[in-house]
C-alpha cells in the first residue's frame, strides 16, 4: 500500500496488521532491515487499539504482531500492551498457570471458544520470541509455559480452519481465512520448549511430515474442507518443524 503496509488479496485495499506482520517478518529473516524499518511507523499505526478491534480480539493476530514488533522495535511502547493482551488471553488453572489458548483473546466472553492446540503453539512461540528479542524484558519466560507444553502433548493435533471477520458497514464483513498446519506448529513449539525429540508423539508427527511431501512440497488438508495442493505456507510450516527437530535431536 502507499503508506508502506500490506493487505491480503482477500481483503479491502487498506493496510492490515496480519498481512503487514507476515511481510515484515519475512524481510527481517532476509536481513532486509532497511525496508522493514521503513514500515515500522505505519505498522505501529495499524496496531493501535482504537484502529483495529479485530486485532485485539483474535489470538492469531496477536501472535503475528508480537514477534514482528519485538524484532523491529523492541522498545516500542505498544509491545508490552500486545504481550499483556496475549498473556491475558490464556486460560489458566487455579494456581494461575497457563494451560492453553483459544482462538479468541477474551475466551471467557465467548461461549463457543474451545481449547486450540494450534493457537497455543503459536502463542508460546510468539511469547518466547519476544522474551528473547527484548533480552528477557518483555514476554513470558519458558518455565511459565511448561504447563501449556504438557497440555499440548495430551491433545489431538488436527489441522484447523479459522476466519477473522472485520466489520464493513452494516452486516458486512471482510474475511481473512487462515489454515493452520497444527501438527507442524505444535511439534516445533514443543521442541523449542525442550520436549525430548525422542518423545513418541514428536517422532510420529515429524515422521509423518517427513514422508508426506511431494517433491519437497506439502499439501494442506482438513476433512470437510477443500484440499489445497502445495501452498507455500504449508511447506514453510513443515520445514520449520523439521528444522527444529534436527536441531534438538542433534544434541542427543
Provide an overview of this structure.
The protein is mainly α and 252 residues long. The protein has two domains: 1-180, no CATH class; 190-252, no CATH class. The protein contains eleven helices and four strands; from the N terminus they run ααααααββααββααα. It has helices spanning 17-29, 33-38, 40-46, 53-57, 59-72, 77-88, 117-133, 146-153, 182-192, 200-211, 232-249, and strands at 91-92, 98-100, 160-167, 173-180. The strands form two sheets. Strands 1-2 form a two-stranded antiparallel sheet. A two-stranded antiparallel ribbon has the order 3-4. The radius of gyration is 18 Å and the shape is globular.
In short:
The protein has 252 residues and is mainly alpha-helical. Helix content is 49%, strand content 8%.
Salient structural properties:
49% helix, 252 residues, mainly alpha, 11 helices
Distinct helical segment count:
11
Number of discrete domains: 2
Based on secondary structure, the structural category is mainly alpha
Q: Estimate the helix proportion, in percent.
A: 40-55%
Tell me the major beta sheet.
2 strands, antiparallel
Number of E strands: 4
Poorly predicted parts: none
Tell me the span between the first and last alpha carbons. Answer: 47 Å
What number is the mean pLDDT?
94
